[in-house]
Amino acid sequence: MKLIVTGMENGRAVSFKQDSADAALEKAQKLQGEGLDGVHITDITGRSYGPREFAACFVRSTS
Questions:
Q1: Which range marks the domain in which residue 30 is found?
Q2: Residue 48 lies inside a defined structural domain of this protein
Q3: Quick check: is 15 in a domain?
Q4: Pick from 47, 51, 44, 3: nearest CA to 30
Q5: Which of 11, 15, 26, 31 has the maximum number of C-beta atoms within 10 A of its C-beta?
């Protein structure tokens, strides 16, 4: 699964390619924690999700 995590830093988009849903969510949460704005995850179809939406749809609980 190829996913792109993007956030805005100083008015510029910063993007990172991730190979799994778990890695994408972790990166998105890290970017939010670093203060980036508009963090979202884009899937192979071009659909974008906020980190919470993405977690609800794609990340399985380990419990």
A1: 3-58
A2: yes
A3: yes
A4: 51
A5: 31
Model pTM score: 0.86
With respect to residue 63, please indicate whether it lies within any of the assigned structural domains: no
pLDDT-derived band at 51 (thresholds 50, 70, 90) equals: confident
One-letter amino acid of 33 = G
> Residue 59 pLDDT > 80, yes or no?
no
3-state secondary structure (DSSP) of residue 38: strand
Average pLDDT of the residues in 3-22? 96
CA angle (50, 2, 6) in 5-degree steps: 40
Position 44, amino acid = I
